[in-house]
Amino acid sequence: MSITLPELTPTQESLFLTLGISALDSRLPRPFLGDPMADEIVRASGYDLRRFALFRSERLDPKTKVFSGAVRAKRVDEVVARFVAAHPEAVVLDLGTGLDTRVFRIDPPPTVDWYDIDFPTVIDLRRQLVPEREGGSSRRGRPDRAGLAGGHSRRPADHDRP
Questions:
Q1: pTM for this prediction
Q2: Within 10 Å of residue 116's Cβ, how many Cβ atoms?
Q3: Which of 8, 85, 137, 149 could form a disulfide with 12 if both were Cys (CB 3.0 to 4.6 A apart)?
Q4: Which residue in 26, 21, 33 sits closest to 59, CA to CA?
């Protein structure tokens, strides 16, 4: 796959920080988060993680031998997984989703509506690098689209969903 990365603002480019942490974690002998898809996405993007000082020296927590960002991602995964288990018809908005693969790690039931929301440039990049999730209700949105960020639901009957 040949990808040409778009011009990203520093804010948008920061998506490679979180993705890179997940990718490097997956390369460890005993990964904490265990997200090999993140590593596949980094490799497919051709992005040089060493552009960030964090990745010039593989900084692991000296006590746990894991990346603190992987610990944070795992904790958020656990919170979302518990919420989705308690509310199997929930609507999840992954704001600032970047190239995150949380929806694959959580693997919510098809009754959950999952929206990946980010800048238009990032969503376009996401479409190139992150596969569509099969068997689930997952949508990719941009803040400039009415109904996703405008506060108006296209499905008024869903107003009682968590």
A1: 0.79
A2: 26
A3: 8
A4: 21
Q: 43-53 as b/e, with b when 16 or more CB fall inside 10 Å?
A: eebebebeeee
pLDDT at 68: 80
Distances, alpha carbon 93 to alpha carbons 19, 101, 114, in Å: 18, 13, 6
Q: Do residues 113 and 92 touch, judged by C-beta distance below 8 A?
A: yes
- Joined together, the tokens standing for residue 3 give 């990808």
Q: What pairing do the DSSP bridges indicate for beta strands 137-141 and 91-95?
A: unpaired
Which of 23, 31, 32 lies closest to 55, judged by CA? 23
- The two tokens of residue 162 are 């968590």
Q: For the segment 66-91, what is each residue's pLDDT rounded down to a tens digit? A: 778 888 999 999 999 999 999 999 99
> Distance between CA atoms of 162 and 61, rounded to whole angstroms?
36
DSSP state of 52: S
